[in-house]
Amino acid sequence: MSTLPVIAAVDGSEDSLRALEFAIVAARLWEAPLRVLHVRQYAAPARTGDPAAGSQLSNDPVLDRVKDGLTGRSDLPPLEFATAEGAPARTLPEESAGAQLLVLGSRGRGGFASLLLGSNGLASAREADCPVVVVPRPGREVIEESPVAPGPRVVVGMPVDSTDESAVAFAFEEAERRGARLQVVSAYAWPTLVWTAVGDYVPAVDDKEEALVECEALAEEVVARHRPRHPRVAAEVTVRDGDAAGHLVSCSAGAELVVVGRHRRRLTQPGRLLGSVTQAVLLHAAAPIAVVPLKGIEADSAG
Protein backbone atom coordinates (compact mmCIF):
# COMPACT_ATOMS: atom_id res chain seq x y z
CA MET A 1 0.00 0.00 0.00
CA SER A 2 1.37 3.43 -0.94
CA THR A 3 -0.65 5.11 1.79
CA LEU A 4 -0.12 3.87 5.32
CA PRO A 5 -3.31 2.33 6.69
CA VAL A 6 -5.43 2.92 9.73
CA ILE A 7 -5.28 -0.28 11.80
CA ALA A 8 -8.31 -1.55 13.71
CA ALA A 9 -7.43 -4.23 16.26
CA VAL A 10 -10.25 -6.77 16.63
CA ASP A 11 -10.69 -9.83 18.81
CA GLY A 12 -14.41 -10.52 18.43
CA SER A 13 -15.43 -8.59 21.55
CA GLU A 14 -18.07 -5.87 21.51
CA ASP A 15 -15.41 -3.38 22.53
CA SER A 16 -13.30 -4.19 19.47
CA LEU A 17 -16.31 -3.96 17.15
CA ARG A 18 -17.03 -0.45 18.48
CA ALA A 19 -13.40 0.40 17.79
CA LEU A 20 -13.78 -1.00 14.27
CA GLU A 21 -16.68 1.38 13.60
CA PHE A 22 -14.57 4.32 14.78
CA ALA A 23 -11.70 3.14 12.56
CA ILE A 24 -13.96 2.88 9.51
CA VAL A 25 -14.92 6.54 9.88
CA ALA A 26 -11.31 7.54 10.61
CA ALA A 27 -9.99 5.75 7.52
CA ARG A 28 -12.53 7.55 5.33
CA LEU A 29 -11.64 10.91 6.88
CA TRP A 30 -7.92 10.23 6.52
CA GLU A 31 -8.46 8.92 2.96
CA ALA A 32 -6.50 5.84 3.99
CA PRO A 33 -7.04 2.10 3.65
CA LEU A 34 -8.23 0.19 6.70
CA ARG A 35 -6.32 -2.83 7.95
CA VAL A 36 -8.44 -5.04 10.20
CA LEU A 37 -5.99 -6.93 12.38
CA HIS A 38 -6.56 -9.86 14.72
CA VAL A 39 -3.65 -10.83 16.94
CA ARG A 40 -3.94 -14.44 18.09
CA GLN A 41 -1.94 -15.06 21.21
CA TYR A 42 -1.73 -18.80 20.59
CA ALA A 43 -1.54 -20.46 17.19
CA ALA A 44 -3.81 -23.37 16.45
CA PRO A 45 -1.90 -26.63 17.11
CA ALA A 46 -0.84 -28.51 14.01
CA ARG A 47 0.77 -31.94 13.64
CA THR A 48 4.11 -32.09 11.91
CA GLY A 49 3.65 -33.12 8.30
CA ASP A 50 -0.11 -32.55 8.40
CA PRO A 51 -1.12 -31.10 5.00
CA ALA A 52 -3.87 -29.14 6.74
CA ALA A 53 -1.38 -27.33 8.99
CA GLY A 54 -1.17 -24.27 6.75
CA SER A 55 -4.93 -23.93 6.55
CA GLN A 56 -5.21 -24.23 10.33
CA LEU A 57 -2.91 -21.24 10.70
CA SER A 58 -4.65 -19.21 8.01
CA ASN A 59 -8.22 -19.82 9.18
CA ASP A 60 -9.40 -17.08 11.51
CA PRO A 61 -13.00 -17.32 12.76
CA VAL A 62 -12.76 -13.84 14.33
CA LEU A 63 -11.97 -12.20 11.00
CA ASP A 64 -14.55 -14.36 9.25
CA ARG A 65 -17.24 -12.96 11.56
CA VAL A 66 -16.00 -9.42 11.02
CA LYS A 67 -16.10 -9.89 7.25
CA ASP A 68 -19.64 -11.25 7.46
CA GLY A 69 -20.70 -8.20 9.50
CA LEU A 70 -19.27 -5.81 6.90
CA THR A 71 -20.71 -7.55 3.86
CA GLY A 72 -22.98 -5.33 1.80
CA ARG A 73 -21.96 -2.03 3.42
CA SER A 74 -21.35 0.88 1.06
CA ASP A 75 -19.56 3.17 3.52
CA LEU A 76 -16.31 1.22 3.71
CA PRO A 77 -12.79 2.41 2.81
CA PRO A 78 -10.42 0.00 1.02
CA LEU A 79 -10.09 -3.01 3.32
CA GLU A 80 -7.38 -5.49 4.19
CA PHE A 81 -7.73 -8.31 6.72
CA ALA A 82 -4.73 -9.72 8.53
CA THR A 83 -3.94 -12.20 11.29
CA ALA A 84 -0.79 -12.01 13.40
CA GLU A 85 0.53 -14.44 15.99
CA GLY A 86 1.97 -13.24 19.29
CA ALA A 87 1.21 -11.35 22.46
CA PRO A 88 -1.14 -8.46 21.56
CA ALA A 89 0.55 -6.09 24.02
CA ARG A 90 3.78 -6.51 22.06
CA THR A 91 2.51 -7.22 18.56
CA LEU A 92 0.13 -4.25 18.28
CA PRO A 93 2.87 -1.66 19.00
CA GLU A 94 5.10 -3.46 16.48
CA GLU A 95 2.38 -3.29 13.83
CA SER A 96 1.92 0.43 14.51
CA ALA A 97 5.25 1.17 12.82
CA GLY A 98 3.49 0.72 9.48
CA ALA A 99 0.31 2.64 10.29
CA GLN A 100 -1.01 6.19 10.49
CA LEU A 101 -3.35 5.37 13.34
CA LEU A 102 -4.05 2.38 15.59
CA VAL A 103 -7.58 1.99 16.98
CA LEU A 104 -8.67 -0.49 19.63
CA GLY A 105 -11.31 -0.96 22.29
CA SER A 106 -10.75 -0.25 25.95
CA ARG A 107 -11.26 -3.90 26.88
CA GLY A 108 -10.86 -7.15 24.98
CA ARG A 109 -11.89 -10.71 25.68
CA GLY A 110 -9.09 -11.45 28.11
CA GLY A 111 -8.29 -10.23 31.61
CA PHE A 112 -10.68 -9.03 34.27
CA ALA A 113 -13.98 -7.58 33.08
CA SER A 114 -14.01 -5.09 35.96
CA LEU A 115 -10.88 -3.28 34.73
CA LEU A 116 -11.53 0.05 33.03
CA LEU A 117 -8.64 -0.32 30.59
CA GLY A 118 -7.06 -3.54 29.35
CA SER A 119 -3.35 -4.28 29.26
CA ASN A 120 -3.30 -4.24 25.45
CA GLY A 121 -4.76 -0.74 25.32
CA LEU A 122 -2.33 0.49 27.95
CA ALA A 123 0.68 -1.09 26.24
CA SER A 124 -0.34 0.21 22.81
CA ALA A 125 -0.91 3.75 24.09
CA ARG A 126 2.50 3.66 25.76
CA GLU A 127 4.58 1.91 23.09
CA ALA A 128 3.07 2.53 19.65
CA ASP A 129 4.94 4.57 17.05
CA CYS A 130 1.78 6.17 15.70
CA PRO A 131 -1.15 7.85 17.47
CA VAL A 132 -3.43 5.38 19.26
CA VAL A 133 -7.18 5.82 19.74
CA VAL A 134 -8.80 3.89 22.58
CA VAL A 135 -12.59 3.69 22.26
CA PRO A 136 -14.27 3.40 25.68
CA ARG A 137 -17.34 1.42 26.52
CA PRO A 138 -20.56 3.46 26.37
CA GLY A 139 -22.09 4.63 29.60
CA ARG A 140 -19.10 6.26 31.27
CA GLU A 141 -20.57 9.01 33.40
CA VAL A 142 -18.74 12.30 33.81
CA ILE A 143 -19.75 15.51 35.49
CA GLU A 144 -19.81 18.46 33.12
CA GLU A 145 -18.30 21.53 34.77
CA SER A 146 -20.08 23.94 32.45
CA PRO A 147 -22.45 23.62 29.48
CA VAL A 148 -20.95 23.62 26.00
CA ALA A 149 -22.43 24.67 22.69
CA PRO A 150 -23.93 21.88 20.59
CA GLY A 151 -22.11 20.50 17.57
CA PRO A 152 -19.08 18.32 16.90
CA ARG A 153 -16.15 19.06 19.17
CA VAL A 154 -12.57 17.81 19.60
CA VAL A 155 -10.86 18.36 22.96
CA VAL A 156 -7.10 18.55 23.46
CA GLY A 157 -5.12 18.80 26.68
CA MET A 158 -2.25 21.25 26.44
CA PRO A 159 0.35 21.68 29.19
CA VAL A 160 1.53 25.25 28.71
CA ASP A 161 5.01 24.37 30.00
CA SER A 162 5.60 21.80 27.22
CA THR A 163 7.68 22.66 24.17
CA ASP A 164 6.17 19.83 22.11
CA GLU A 165 3.02 20.68 20.17
CA SER A 166 2.43 17.29 18.50
CA ALA A 167 -0.87 16.68 20.32
CA VAL A 168 -2.15 20.17 19.48
CA ALA A 169 -1.21 19.73 15.81
CA PHE A 170 -2.98 16.34 15.71
CA ALA A 171 -6.07 17.82 17.35
CA PHE A 172 -6.27 20.68 14.84
CA GLU A 173 -6.03 18.16 11.98
CA GLU A 174 -8.75 15.97 13.47
CA ALA A 175 -11.04 18.93 14.10
CA GLU A 176 -10.64 20.02 10.47
CA ARG A 177 -11.32 16.50 9.14
CA ARG A 178 -14.44 16.21 11.26
CA GLY A 179 -15.77 19.71 10.71
CA ALA A 180 -15.56 20.21 14.46
CA ARG A 181 -14.54 23.05 16.67
CA LEU A 182 -11.50 22.59 18.89
CA GLN A 183 -11.53 23.05 22.65
CA VAL A 184 -8.01 23.51 24.00
CA VAL A 185 -7.87 22.78 27.73
CA SER A 186 -5.02 23.98 29.94
CA ALA A 187 -4.74 23.88 33.70
CA TYR A 188 -2.44 25.54 36.18
CA ALA A 189 -1.61 24.39 39.70
CA TRP A 190 -3.44 26.29 42.43
CA PRO A 191 -2.69 27.01 45.15
CA THR A 192 1.05 26.77 44.55
CA LEU A 193 3.05 25.51 47.51
CA VAL A 194 6.46 26.61 48.79
CA TRP A 195 8.87 24.88 51.14
CA THR A 196 9.41 26.73 54.42
CA ALA A 197 12.43 26.83 56.70
CA VAL A 198 10.65 24.63 59.25
CA GLY A 199 10.08 21.90 56.68
CA ASP A 200 6.43 22.46 55.76
CA TYR A 201 4.66 23.20 52.49
CA VAL A 202 2.44 26.27 52.67
CA PRO A 203 0.43 28.10 50.01
CA ALA A 204 2.49 30.72 48.23
CA VAL A 205 1.36 34.31 48.26
CA ASP A 206 0.56 34.42 44.55
CA ASP A 207 -2.06 36.28 42.63
CA LYS A 208 -4.53 33.75 41.22
CA GLU A 209 -5.76 36.18 38.60
CA GLU A 210 -2.19 36.75 37.46
CA ALA A 211 -1.61 33.00 37.16
CA LEU A 212 -4.80 32.64 35.10
CA VAL A 213 -3.85 35.49 32.75
CA GLU A 214 -0.35 34.07 32.26
CA CYS A 215 -1.67 30.58 31.49
CA GLU A 216 -4.24 31.95 29.03
CA ALA A 217 -1.56 33.99 27.26
CA LEU A 218 0.75 30.98 26.89
CA ALA A 219 -2.09 28.79 25.61
CA GLU A 220 -3.28 31.41 23.13
CA GLU A 221 0.29 31.80 21.87
CA VAL A 222 0.49 28.08 21.05
CA VAL A 223 -2.94 28.03 19.41
CA ALA A 224 -2.06 31.09 17.32
CA ARG A 225 0.83 29.19 15.72
CA HIS A 226 -1.58 26.54 14.39
CA ARG A 227 -4.53 28.70 13.32
CA PRO A 228 -3.00 29.83 9.98
CA ARG A 229 -2.70 26.18 8.84
CA HIS A 230 -6.31 25.43 9.82
CA PRO A 231 -8.32 28.61 9.19
CA ARG A 232 -11.62 26.70 9.12
CA VAL A 233 -11.18 25.37 12.66
CA ALA A 234 -12.78 27.45 15.39
CA ALA A 235 -10.43 26.97 18.35
CA GLU A 236 -11.26 28.14 21.85
CA VAL A 237 -9.00 28.07 24.89
CA THR A 238 -10.34 26.88 28.25
CA VAL A 239 -8.07 27.56 31.24
CA ARG A 240 -8.89 26.24 34.70
CA ASP A 241 -7.02 25.82 37.93
CA GLY A 242 -6.26 22.52 39.60
CA ASP A 243 -6.64 18.99 38.27
CA ALA A 244 -5.89 18.84 34.53
CA ALA A 245 -7.12 15.25 34.19
CA GLY A 246 -10.40 16.05 35.90
CA HIS A 247 -11.04 19.00 33.60
CA LEU A 248 -10.29 16.93 30.48
CA VAL A 249 -12.57 14.13 31.62
CA SER A 250 -15.33 16.66 32.29
CA CYS A 251 -14.88 18.20 28.83
CA SER A 252 -15.04 14.73 27.22
CA ALA A 253 -18.81 14.60 27.69
CA GLY A 254 -20.35 14.90 24.22
CA ALA A 255 -16.98 15.25 22.45
CA GLU A 256 -16.04 13.27 19.35
CA LEU A 257 -12.44 12.85 20.50
CA VAL A 258 -10.13 13.77 23.36
CA VAL A 259 -6.47 14.21 22.44
CA VAL A 260 -3.61 13.89 24.91
CA GLY A 261 0.15 13.63 24.50
CA ARG A 262 2.32 10.78 25.63
CA HIS A 263 5.41 11.59 27.66
CA ARG A 264 8.61 11.83 25.72
CA ARG A 265 11.54 9.57 26.49
CA ARG A 266 13.85 10.93 29.15
CA LEU A 267 17.61 10.69 29.19
CA THR A 268 17.59 8.80 32.47
CA GLN A 269 14.48 6.75 31.63
CA PRO A 270 14.74 5.69 27.98
CA GLY A 271 11.55 3.62 28.13
CA ARG A 272 8.33 5.18 26.91
CA LEU A 273 6.03 6.60 29.57
CA LEU A 274 2.40 7.53 30.03
CA GLY A 275 1.90 10.56 32.22
CA SER A 276 -0.54 10.53 35.10
CA VAL A 277 -2.93 12.88 33.27
CA THR A 278 -2.94 10.67 30.17
CA GLN A 279 -3.57 7.55 32.22
CA ALA A 280 -6.45 9.17 34.09
CA VAL A 281 -8.05 10.36 30.86
CA LEU A 282 -7.73 6.87 29.35
CA LEU A 283 -9.47 5.40 32.38
CA HIS A 284 -12.31 7.86 32.77
CA ALA A 285 -13.05 9.93 29.64
CA ALA A 286 -16.45 9.40 28.04
CA ALA A 287 -15.22 9.97 24.47
CA PRO A 288 -12.62 8.12 22.39
CA ILE A 289 -9.11 9.09 23.49
CA ALA A 290 -6.22 9.70 21.09
CA VAL A 291 -2.75 9.33 22.63
CA VAL A 292 -0.18 11.10 20.47
CA PRO A 293 3.54 10.28 20.68
CA LEU A 294 5.67 13.29 21.44
CA LYS A 295 8.97 13.89 19.73
CA GLY A 296 12.54 13.86 20.92
CA ILE A 297 14.16 13.25 24.29
CA GLU A 298 13.77 15.59 27.22
CA ALA A 299 15.98 15.94 30.23
CA ASP A 300 14.62 15.15 33.68
CA SER A 301 14.83 18.81 34.59
CA ALA A 302 12.15 19.52 32.01
CA GLY A 303 9.53 17.86 34.17
Question: Can you put this structure into words, describing what you see?
Answer:
This is UspA domain-containing protein. Residues 6-136, 153-293 form the UspA domain. Residues 47-79 are annotated as: Disordered. Belongs to the universal stress protein A family. By secondary structure, this protein is an alpha/beta fold. Helix content is 33%, strand content 22%. The chain has helices at residues 14-30, 53-58, 61-70, 88-95, 119-127, 166-178, 208-226, 244-251, 276-284; strands at 6-9, 34-40, 79-85, 101-105, 132-135, 153-157, 181-188, 193-195, 201-203, 235-241, 257-261, 265-266, 289-292, 297-298. The longest helix has 19 residues, at 208-226.
Topology diagram in text:
Blueprint: E1 6-9, H1 14-30, E2 34-40, H2 53-58, H3 61-70, E3 79-85, H4 88-95, E4 101-105, H5 119-127, E5 132-135, E6 153-157, H6 166-178, E7 181-188, E8 193-195, E9 201-203, H7 208-226, E10 235-241, H8 244-251, E11 257-261, E12 265-266, H9 276-284, E13 289-292, E14 297-298
Parallel strand pairs: 1-2, 1-4, 2-3, 4-5, 6-7, 6-11, 7-10, 11-13, 12-14
Antiparallel strand pairs: 5-13, 8-9
Order of helices and strands: EHEHHEHEHEEHEEEHEHEEHEE
CA-atom Rg in angstroms: 21 Å
- DSSP summary: helix tally: 9
Structural class: alpha/beta
Number of E-state strands: 14
Helical proportion, percent range:
25-40%
CATH architecture of the largest domain: 3-Layer(aba) Sandwich
The side-by-side strand order for the widest beta sheet comes to 3-2-1-4-5-13-11-6-7-10
Mean pLDDT over the residues? 83
Shape label: globular
Strand content: 15-25%
User: How far apart lie the N and C ends?
Assistant: 40 Å
Give the domain tally: 2
CATH class of the largest domain: Alpha Beta
Residue runs with pLDDT of under 50 for 5 or more positions: 50-56, 110-116, 297-303
Largest sheet: 10 strands, mixed
- Looking at the structure, the CATH topology of the largest domain is Rossmann fold
